[in-house]
Every structure is written in structure tokens, then in C-alpha cells.
From TrEMBL:
Its EC number is 2.5.1.5. It comes from the Eukaryota. Keywords: Transferase. This is CAAX geranylgeranyltransferase alpha subunit.
Length: 325
């Protein structure tokens, strides 16, 4: 709380001087008898948390408790207990969840990489819109629902400002998975990669969209999809051969889900690229090409008997020498 002084400047008004809190006995933080290195809290923050501990201890469910939780969070967004209690208050008081998400958006600029903020959003979203309620709608219809549209817009703006914010990408995965927005998300991912082919977060999201709508054990990488993803990765490699992202993406995808296709389908494509006069120097000068060959030959050797591995081992050894050099 603040009060205005004569020069129109704001001054902190201690809670102990506010009539609204006169019935509350604050509970000081207990750092033990002889704390080695107590945190130097401001007087305002110390008093806020002392009163907040008191209302939590009393189990108070009130509008003033809710407002105080917001003050504590804005002063220290890592105060996870305040977030937990705030969610309880929202539910018990029957408050507007949409309004709460807007409040989180407002303070997010100051706390955009705070885990608790993103967890709070993720916990509230299904209370605002039950995923089961959209099950019969098409993906095109789902993204027009205000709750989904607003959430995608918010997280999209965060990613536009910081394309490597892993909290935002994780939250986007939660939204996509909860509401089944797979086709829509693949289009978004391609836009992100086109904007920045080196955005490894967007490449990771592509893998998520491709595989996460099925369990890892159930996902089957068909030949058609493998050929499509190999072609996509190769085209992006052409743009920046020394960019690790497409190499890691296609190698990781095939190693995990279709290792035989590394030798059968990927190797011819990247060797063709390495022989192309327009790309040969750039491709063979990057360690990611040679590293890919090592991975390919290693997986190939696993499918052969020991006495059949001579050529493959020789190729792998040559690739290792080139990689070392």
C-alpha cells in the first residue's frame, strides 16, 4: 500500500498502520537463532510476507488475502507458496480465471522466465476451458475459441521477443497437447524455422509435434514421413551447412525411431549434397557432416555380423579422422 505526500510522490504505508490489517498479528520469518547469512529483505517486503504468513496460517479466504498474494508475487515471483495459495483463493472465492490470466500476462514482462508464473498459467488454463469440451471440434474451430486463441497469442508474443525461452516453448507444448492442435502447430513451427533456421527450440518443437501426439513406444516413423523429414532437413542444411539444428534433428529422429533409414535413406542424400559443387566445400567443412557419417556408420555396423563390418568400420574411421582434423 502507498500514501501520497505533499510533493505528489508515493510513500510506502506500513501495513501495521492500515485499518484493514489491524486484526492480523504478523508472523515473522524464522531464520533460526543465529542465521549465518540472513537475506537482506526490504522493510516493505518483510512486512508483507509476515502478514501473508499470518493469513495462510489462519487459512483465510478473502479478497484482501488474494490481493496480498499478488503483491507478494510481484515483489518476488519465485515465492512458490504464494502462487499455490493464490490458486486456492481463486478457486475458493470463485474468481474470474480469465481475469487472472490477464493479470499474469501484465506482470509477465517483469518475470518472464519465472517457472512459477508459467506453472500457474498451465494449472489455470484447463479450469478455464476443459480440454474434453473441445474434443468434437476441428483444429480450425479450436483455435478460434477465445481462451485458446488468447493463450497462443500470449505465448507467441513471448517467443517472438525471445525465441529461446524454454518456459514459453514448454507452455506452448502443454497448450498444443491439451487441446490437440497438432496440424496448426506444425504450420507455426515451419514459420519459426523459416524466420530463423538456427532456432534449435523450433526444431525441437517440430520433433515434439511429429511424435508427441502418440506415445514414444507407439510412434512409427513411416517411410513417407521419413523421406519428407529428410528432404526438409536437407533443404535447411543447404541454407546454412554449419548450423547444427537440422543435422541434430534428422539424425536424432532416425536414430530413435528408424535407425535403418540412416544408411538406406539419409546417407545417399547427404553424400549427394557433399558432392554437389554448389555445396561441397561448405558441407564437408562442417563437423556436423562428419559427425553424421559416424552416427550413420555406427548404426549400420550394429546390423552386420562382425566379419561383415570391414568397409563400414573403415568409412567410420575415415569420418572420425576428418572430424578430428
Amino acid at each position: 500500500m502507498v500514501r501520497i505526500v505533499d510533493n505528489d510522490e508515493e510513500e510506502w504505508l506500513p501495513m501495521s498502520e492500515q485499518e484493514e490489517w489491524s486484526d492480523v498479528v504478523p508472523i515473522p520469518q524464522d531464520d533460526g537463532r543465529n542465521p549465518v547469512c540472513p537475506i537482506a529483505y526490504t522493510d516493505e517486503y518483510r512486512e508483507m510476507t509476515d502478514y501473508f504468513r499470518a493469513i495462510m496460517a489462519a487459512g483465510e479466504v478473502s479478497q484482501r488475502a488474494f490481493e496480498l498474494s499478488g503483491r507478494v508475487i510481484d515483489a518476488n515471483a519465485a515465492h512458490y507458496t504464494a502462487w499455490v495459495y493464490r490458486k486456492k483463493l481463486i478457486i475458493d472465492l470463485g474468481l474470474d480465471i480469465g481475469e487472472e490470466l490477464r493479470w499474469v500476462s501484465e506482470i509477465s514482462g517483469r518475470h518472464i522466465k519465472n517457472y512459477q508464473l508459467w506453472h500457474h498459467r498451465g494449472a489455470l488454463l484447463p479450469l478455464l476451458l476443459d480440454p474434453q469440451d473441445v474434443g468434437r471440434l476441428s483444429q480450425e474451430q479450436r483455435v478460434l475459441i477465445p481462451a485458446i486463441r488468447d493463450e497462443l497469442r500470449f505465448v507467441g508474443e513471448v517467443i517472438d521477443n525471445d525465441s529461446k525461452n524454454f518456459h514459453a516453448w514448454s507452455h506452448r507444448q502443454l497448450v498444443v497437447r491439451s487441446y490437440g492442435l497438432w496440424d496448426q502447430e506444425m504450420a507455426y513451427v515451419e514459420t519459426q524455422i523459416n524466420q530463423d533456421v538456427r532456432n534449435n527450440s523450433a526444431w525441437n518443437q517440430r520433433y515434439f509435434v511429429l511424435t508427441a501426439n502418440q506415445s514414444t513406444d507407439d510412434f512409427v516413423l513411416t517411410e513417407d514421413v521419413a523421406d519428407r523429414e529428410i528432404a526438409y532437413a536437407v533443404e535447411k542444411i543447404k541454407l546454412a551447412p554449419n548450423n547444427e539444428s537440422p543435422w541434430s534433428y534428422v539424425i536424432g529422429l532416425l536414430v530413435r525411431h528408424a535407425p535403418a533409414m540412416l544408411y538406406e535413406r539419409l546417407l545417399p542424400r547427404i553424400n549427394e549434397l557433399a558432392a554437389d559443387k554448389d555445396y561441397a566445400v561448405a558441407v564437408t567443412s562442417t563437423p556436423f557432416y562428419w559427425s553424421a557419417l559416424v552416427d550413420i556408420y555406427e548404426e549400420r555396423a550394429k546390423t552386420l555380423d562382425v566379419d561383415e563390418r570391414g568397409d563400414v568400420e573403415a568409412f567410420a574411421s575415415e569420418a572420425c579422422d576428418s572430424l578430428a582434423e
